[in-house]
Write a structure and sequence with these properties.
The protein has about 375 residues and is α/β, with parallel strands linked by helices. The protein has helices spanning about 5-15, 20, 25-40, 70-80, 100-110, 115-130, 150-160, 175, 185-200, 215-225, 250-265, 275-285, 315-325, 335-340, 360-365; strands spanning about 85, 90, 135-140, 170-175, 205-210, 240-245, 305-310, 345, 355. It starts with a helix and ends in a 5-residue tail after the last helix.
Length: about 375
């Protein structure tokens, strides 16, 4: 893969035999180090150099490449963009693999038939629309460990070649990125810069807000215009962006509906969106948190409220099986049962709803490692 790059490079140097007059040896070394690090990080997805802001690893300036002809630079650009789809302002490596997303959700996400169906339908419809009226906004709700983060990563992995490492993807964790209410004015400015800068580089950008219920209402209102029905804001269109909010709000309503179905003898798979979405909207509006104190929901800017049901004992076993397989470890039904029994369930005697979810399964598996 790298050979097509170095062949034209060697040709260019041989044609221009006086390249020493254009480049100092130190500059050549710096250019090589930068691009080797870039290729390693972004093409082979290796561990990136810890000092990306090192002056020796800065992007080479235009003057540094003045020795090369336009034909060579076009050849290099075509090779680079052949590795992934290029945006007008940079390589975003957009792949939009909806088939892969559908397959991943079907094979790796357990016990979430509603999330599986809604996410695929929402994203497929949005990407097929050549002129969406607004950005796509999804709000994931449910207990911790039911798969909200997991699905977000599946989306990024199937829409962008570099997944969560893509320059098109931004992950915000409320307590980490915006911890102090007294600094909300500073955060608002930073958030505007992050969103506008990302969309300028990549119109089909993905923004994920984890623990969204902890966002200050002022930050919710800062995000709101980017999801609204505007043609553009300051000359930038945000209509192809995707916003995903992850929240524990609504978990009680989801659990109550699921438990009612179980008590009535109905199958878990009989729970549908009509049973849950109205209650999710109501709880999101009435619960303490950023949503309830902002104007966010009054304009119907959230396209889909996606419920994540509490997991049953059988689903936890499937999570344990996947964790063993991902680590290349052998397992048996007895071991899977032992892992699953180590979780907390409500009601406990029925092992019906896992209070910890699949997220705790890898930690439990550590007990079985030598």
């Amino acid at each position: 893969m790298i050979l097509p790059l170095f062949l034209p490079l060697a040709w260019a140097l041989s044609v221009n035999g006086e390249f020493g007059a254009f480049f100092q040896l130190g500059s050549i070394s710096n250019v090589s180090r930068y691009y080797w690090n870039y290729v390693y990080c972004n093409i082979w997805e290796g561990e990136c150099h810890p000092h990306q802001d090192d002056s020796s690893l800065q992007v080479p300036t235009e003057d540094s490449w003045s020795m090369f002809s336009e034909d060579y630079m076009q050849l290099l650009s075509n090779w680079y963009c052949s590795l992934g789809q290029c945006c007008e302002t940079g390589d975003c490596r957009i792949i939009n693999n909806i088939t892969g997303l559908e397959k991943d959700l079907e094979q790796k996400l357990h016990g979430q038939h509603l999330a599986q169906a809604v996410v695929v339908r929402a994203i497929r419809g949005f990407l097929k629309n050549p002129s969406p009226e607004k950005a796509l906004t999804l709000s994931f709700h449910g207990w911790s460990g039911t798969g909200k983060n997991f699905v977000s990563r599946m989306i990024s992995d199937n829409l962008y070649r570099d997944g969560m490492k893509s320059q098109c993807v931004r992950l915000f964790i409320s307590p980490f990125h915006f911890p102090h209410a007294k600094l909300v004015d500073v955060y608002q400015g930073q958030l505007k810069d992050w969103i506008s800068g990302t969309v300028q580089h990549c119109p089909q950008a993905l923004f994920i807000f984890d623990e969204a219920e902890k966002l200050h209402p002022g930050l919710i209102d800062t995000i709101k215009p980017y999801m609204d029905y505007y043609q553009d804001l300051d000359g930038i269109s945000y209509r192809r962006a995707i916003f995903i909010f992850l929240s524990n709000i609504g978990g009680a309503a989801i659990n109550e509906v699921t438990l009612d179905f179980w008590h009535s003898g109905q199958n878990r798979e009989d729970v549908d969106m009509e049973d849950l979405e109205p209650r999710l909207r109501t709880e999101a509006l009435q619960s303490q948190g950023g949503f309830s104190q902002s104007q966010h929901l009054t304009g119907n800017l959230i396209d889909f409220f996606v419920p994540f049901l509490p997991l049953e004992y059988r689903h936890v076993k499937l999570c344990a099986r996947d964790a063993f397989r991902s680590r290349g470890l052998s397992y048996s039904e007895e071991i899977l049962d032992e892992v699953a029994r180590g979780m907390l369930y409500v009601p406990k005697e029925e092992k019906l709803f896992s209070a910890q979810g699949c997220k705790s399964v890898p930690q439990r598996i550590n007990f079985f490692l030598p």
